[in-house]
């Protein structure tokens, strides 16, 4: 609603906040609280904690996972075990695909290991949503060495999006 003022020193045109503005503000606040609840839920991943990985949700559909490689994460060559590299990519994939609050489970994962890493390296796995459909979604995941930026592994992953939501609304906030 707009109000036109004739008083000196008051802007000629003033917008008065109404009911619709309050509804939009409440929706924004509910959405923000919902995103915080989703973030808390995803960051409670026991396997990520076990590895010592840090999960960061950038925005819905986009996630980063950080992990410093230790001696006990190596294979018999002394380089990072492929299972560890796969794991941090999978953690990023799982977080990104579930970051909408709707349960998503892996259908297909295809990974290419491109370069070795070693103890002391800090790896970053980044998952980005490429397509979000009704029942499926596609993600691109890259695992890089934080210091050099070298690409360690790359994968393309597909999820099935179940009808269930693990963060439904105000009752979980």
Q: Estimate the strand proportion.
A: 35-45%
Give the helix/strand class.
Answer: alpha+beta
| Strand arrangement, major sheet | 3-4-6-7-8-5
Give the biggest beta sheet: 6 strands, antiparallel
Q: List segments where confidence is low: pLDDT < 50 over at least 5 consecutive residues.
A: none
Task: Write up this protein.
This protein is of the alpha+beta class. The chain contains 3 helices and 8 strands. A 6-stranded antiparallel sheet has the order 3-4-6-7-8-5. Strands 1-2 form a two-stranded antiparallel sheet. A hairpin with a 2-residue loop joins strand 3 and strand 4 (62-68). The protein is elongated and about 60 Å long. The two termini are 32 Å apart. 25% of the residues are buried.
Summarize the structure.
Helix content is 27%, strand content 39%.
Throw out a few tags for this protein.
about 170 residues; alpha+beta; six-stranded antiparallel sheet; two-stranded antiparallel sheet; elongated
Task: Give the topology.
Blueprint: E1 2-4, E2 13-15, H1 19-42, H2 46-51, E3 54-59, E4 62-68, H3 82-98, E5 102-113, E6 122-132, E7 136-145, E8 151-165
Antiparallel strand pairs: 1-2, 3-4, 4-6, 5-8, 6-7, 7-8
